Amino acid sequence: MSRGALALLLLCLAAMSTALYWGLRNGSFGGETEITFSRFVRDLQADQIEQLRVNGRVATGRTKDGKGFRTILPYLDPQLADDMSEHTEVTFGDPWPENTPSIWWAVPAALVVGYLAGRAAGGSKG
Fold it and tell me: What residues form DSSP beta bridges with 41?
């Protein structure tokens, strides 16, 4: 494999890893529609939300008509949590805390460092 092809492969791998990391981090792989917090509260109080998951300040769920949604909560206080529990099935969790390092950055970084180290040592002549 030529150096140019290997460099392109590494660049594509790094881009895909970054996209996967941000997609998982932001919960954007579920096909949800972004809604405003105001609409979320109206739908919640009207008992239109069937299922809800809150991760940090990101709330994702499904309405009773089967549509997925996502909203950013400006705050999470005990009253809002009680309202959520009263009006729908809600799950609270935070699988991606802000201060947790991510393995997704380690894989492309290790590949790039390995490639550069091999070039510096004169390993690939292709």
Answer: none
Instruction: Scan for tokens 């290790």, then name that residue.
Output: 110
What residue ranges do the domains of the chain occupy? 3-120
Which CATH code, of 2.30.30.520, 3.30.720.210, 3.40.720.10, 3.40.50.880, is assigned to 3-120?
A: 3.30.720.210
Looking at the DSSP bridge assignments, the partners of residue 54 are 59, 92
pLDDT score of 24 more than 60: no
Please give the average per-residue pLDDT across 37-52, as a whole number. Answer: 95
Q: What is the pTM of this model?
A: 0.54
- 107 neighbors 96 (Cβ within 8 angstroms): no
Rg of the chain over all Cα atoms, to the nearest angstrom: 21
CB count in 10 Å sphere of residue 51: 14
